[in-house]
Amino acid sequence: MHSLHSTLPYSVNAFPPPPPTSKERSPSDIFAEAFAASQHVVSTRGRTGWIWPIFEIFKSKTEDHMRIVDAFLDPILEEALRKKQERIADGSWDQEGDKEKAEEWETLLDHLVRYTSDKTVLHDEVLNIMIAGRDTVSSIPISRE
């Protein structure tokens, strides 16, 4: 995802002030902002309760953010499915073999692709893992010592 290629974000009250950075945002920065914004909307829905659909009767507040998230994820999913088809075609991937056995070269997405080629299922699984990972990492306190 090349998330480490861009500069690190700084808090608004960072001391000393952050060095000047380029105004150009990387695709991973745009994705991260949209991902965070959509999570914020979903958490607001939870606090609003059963009445939240009334506030979004004409347009979902997550629609624009999820369009960015989907545009970032879709090429990654398509590439994983393409690699699966290539491996099946050249015989390097035993489709009927032991699905539980993870190969050394496999990523989590490669392993998920063993079970399904349904893009919606893959999209939802990857998104769920990203949400869980982001929430877990963001809840770790940072020591100032």
What does this structure look like?
- This protein has helices at residues 27-48, 52-55, 63-90, 108-115, 119-138.
- By secondary structure, the chain is mainly alpha-helical.
- Helix 1 crosses helix 3 (63-90) and helix 3 packs across helix 4.
- The longest helix has 28 residues, at 63-90.
- The model has no long low-confidence stretch (mean pLDDT 79).
Q: How large a portion of the residues is in β-strands, by DSSP E?
A: under 5%
Number of strands: 0
Catalogue the unreliable spans.
none
Largest sheet features: none
**How much helical structure, as a percent, in the residues?**
55-70%
Helix and strand pattern: HHHHH
- Rough shape? elongated
Estimated structural class: mainly alpha
Radius of gyration, rounded? 19 Å
Helix count, per DSSP? 5
- Calculate the terminal CA-CA distance, rounded to whole Å: 31 Å
User: Mean of residue pLDDT?
Assistant: 79
Keywords for this entry:
145 residues, 57% helix, mainly alpha
Quick description:
By secondary structure, this protein is mostly helical.
What secondary-structure arrangement, pairings included, does this model have?
Layout (H helix, E strand, L loop, with lengths): L26 H22 L3 H4 L7 H28 L17 H8 L3 H20 L7
